[in-house]
Design goal:
The protein has 2 helices and 22 strands. The protein is mainly beta. The strands form 5 sheets. Strands 9, 10, 13, 14, 15, 16, 19 and 20 form an 8-stranded antiparallel sheet that branches. A 4-stranded antiparallel sheet has the order 2-1-8-7, with no helix packed on it. Strands 3-4-5-6 form a 4-stranded antiparallel sheet, with no helix packed on it. The longest helix has 16 residues.
């Protein structure tokens, strides 16, 4: 399961009067163990790409009127950080604990006798991301893929791999609760690790610059992909493992046909032909969206 550990200390080296709260659930407010040396604390964090992201509150209950510190866009798994308060400062460490062998509550591991990911029980093989995957939005929030709506400004990148945000004009399979087989691709990039879960034909970025992609089915241990760290930097990552899972699915189409999911640079499109042709085929749908005809687009499922 996706959880994190947060420890508080009274010294800048994060070594004295340690008090840790372990196995803390993401995406909800949690009161933290602080011992006698530090007042009450609470946190509301997520772990996209295995990087702690969210807010630490001075006091219990995640009170929005309390003094806070933001944990965002940084690899804090080994750093000793400071919470500067009006009264007394304290120090803390936080680390996401994502078990690489645990697909999580939304993804069920499966095994097959061949190298191909099997089709789902109903025989379809939709071209999608896992509904349980995470996406950053322009307003600083984080949503699961199955929570994304048309009009959302989601994290993307330009042709040079630089961070930008792009508007969602189509969400496919939005009302589906079915599950299908996908590839859960784990990766490491320096001290950062994470995973992305996608269908076989989905395209993942294969170069720093230029629209060069590789289908997910072609990735194996040691393959190069590109991931987002420190909130905006694009770095080279290496695939550390591939696991077959059953999961719910959605596909998100952005106006620039690029998206960052679970920290991985990917495309909204699949390997169904030359990339320029796929982008050209989506232009009429984008035109319908701009014309306010989203109800027509909803039929493109």
């Amino acid at each position: 399961a996706e959880v994190y550990t947060l420890c508080v200390y009274t010294d800048e080296n994060c070594s004295e009067n340690e008090q840790c709260t372990t196995d803390v659930q993401v995406r909800q407010c949690n009161d933290l163990e602080t011992g006698d040396a530090i007042d009450a604390l609470s946190a509301e964090l997520t772990c996209p790409a295995n990087v702690p992201t969210g807010t630490l509150y001075d006091g219990n209950g995640c009170d929005t009127n309390a003094q806070t510190t933001e944990i965002s866009g940084q690899d804090v798994s080994t750093g000793c950080l400071i919470f500067e308060r009006a009264t007394e400062n304290f120090f803390y460490t936080v680390k996401c604990n994502v078990d690489e062998d645990d697909a999580g509550p939304d993804e069920e591991p499966i095994e097959t006798d061949d190298d191909d990911v099997p089709e789902d029980a109903d025989g379809d093989d939709e071209i999608c991301f896992s509904g349980a995957s995470s996406v950053h939005l322009q307003d600083g929030s984080i949503k699961r893929v199955d929570e994304i709506n048309t009009g959302d400004m989601v994290e993307s990148y330009d042709i040079r791999g630089k961070q930008m945000f792009s508007e969602v004009f189509l969400v496919q399979h939005k009302d589906s609760n079915r599950r299908q087989a996908m590839r859960r691709i784990s990766y490491t990039a320096g001290s950062v690790s994470g995973h992305i879960t996608v269908s076989d034909l989905h395209l993942v970025r294969a170069s720093v610059e230029g629209d060069k992609f590789v289908r997910a089915a072609a990735l194996s241990e040691g393959s190069v992909i590109f991931v987002r760290v420190n909130g905006k930097d694009t770095v080279e990552g290496r695939v550390s493992g591939v696991q077959r899972v059953m999961t719910t699915y959605r596909n998100i189409h952005t106006m620039n046909d690029r998206i960052v999911v679970d920290g991985v640079l990917a495309s909204s499109a699949a390997d169904l032909g030359p990339y320029w042709m796929l982008r050209a085929a989506l232009l009429p749908l984008k035109g319908l969206y701009r014309a306010g005809l989203s109800s027509v687009l909803e039929r493109c499922d």
